Each structure stands twice: as structure tokens, then as C-alpha cells.
């Protein structure tokens, strides 16, 4: 099964500009929320909503998840910029050969 460039769905972006794609913004937002949850651990333990074992697990897991989400957001942004620069470049290979 081949993918045709003209059939690809466009990258969804939030209205109001030529900023990063929506998937990059979502991944970055989730990373920020994960960091906030990690910072809220002492409050959750003090309120009795989280036990010591749960806090130990969350203390190890939340920073790793935040790191993966930040890496994903950066990758999405980089891919978006790469595709945009390729699409705007007059140079490349086509049906009539390669050249600028």
C-alpha cells in the first residue's frame, strides 16, 4: 500500500498563525501537566490522597513520562519544519528528473 502525497491529510494547527503543529502543542501541554503533577506530590501525600508506595512509584515515573513527552513534542516540531522546508523548496526530484 503506497501513500500518495496528494492524499495525505494536512497537519492540523490551531487558528491564528504559522506556529507549531497541534500535535506538538498537545505533547508539550501534557509534559507541563506531568511536571505539575510531580510537583504536587508532597501536597497529595500530605492530604492523604497518595500513599508512600504510590508516591515512590509516581516520583520515578512522572519525570520519565515528562521527558518522553518533551522529546515527542520536539520531534513533531522538527518533522513539521522539515516537511515545510521541503515543500517550499523548488529543488528536488520529480517526474521530469532532478534539479533546481
How is the topology of this model organized?
Layout: H1 22-39, H2 41-46, H3 52-88, E1 92-94, E2 97-99
Antiparallel strand pairs: 1-2
Helix pairs in contact: 1-3
What can you see in these coordinates?
This protein is mainly α and 100 residues long. It has a domain at 21-87. Helix content is 61%, strand content 6%. The protein contains 3 helices and 2 strands; from the N terminus they run H-H-H-E-E. It has helices spanning 22-39, 41-46, 52-88, and strands spanning 92-94, 97-99. Strands 1-2 form a two-stranded antiparallel ribbon. The longest helix has 37 residues, at 52-88. The protein starts with 21 loop residues before the first helix and ends with a strand. The relative contact order is 0.12. The model has no long low-confidence stretch (mean pLDDT 80).
In terms of per-residue confidence, which ranges show pLDDT below 50 for 5 or more consecutive residues?
none
Q: Whole-number average pLDDT?
A: 80
Series of H and E elements: HHHEE
| Structural category | mainly alpha
Report the biggest beta sheet as strand number plus sense, adding barrel if it closes: 2 strands, antiparallel
Total of DSSP H or I helical runs spanning 4+ residues: 3
Distance between the termini: 30 Å
Task: Write down the overall geometry.
Answer: rod-shaped
> β content, as a range?
5-15%
Over the alpha carbons, how many angstroms does the gyration radius reach? Answer: 21 Å
Oligomer state of the chains in this structure: single chain
Number of strands: 2
Strand order of the largest sheet: 1-2
* Portion of residues within helices: 55-70%
Protein name: Mercuric ion transport protein
Organism: Microbispora hainanensis
Region (Disordered): 1-20
Keywords: Membrane, Transmembrane, Transmembrane helix
Amino acid at each position: 500500500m503506497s501513500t500518495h502525497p496528494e492524499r495525505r491529510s494536512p497537519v492540523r494547527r490551531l487558528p491564528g498563525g504559522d506556529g507549531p503543529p497541534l500535535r506538538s502543542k498537545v505533547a508539550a501541554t501534557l509534559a507541563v501537566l506531568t511536571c505539575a503533577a510531580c510537583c504536587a506530590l508532597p501536597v497529595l501525600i500530605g492530604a492523604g490522597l497518595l500513599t508512600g508506595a504510590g508516591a515512590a512509584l509516581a516520583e520515578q515515573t512522572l519525570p520519565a513520562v515528562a521527558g518522553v513527552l518533551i522529546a515527542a513534542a520536539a520531534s513533531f516540531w522538527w518533522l513539521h519544519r522539515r516537511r515545510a522546508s521541503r515543500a517550499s523548496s523548488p529543488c528536488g526530484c520529480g517526474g521530469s528528473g532532478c534539479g533546481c
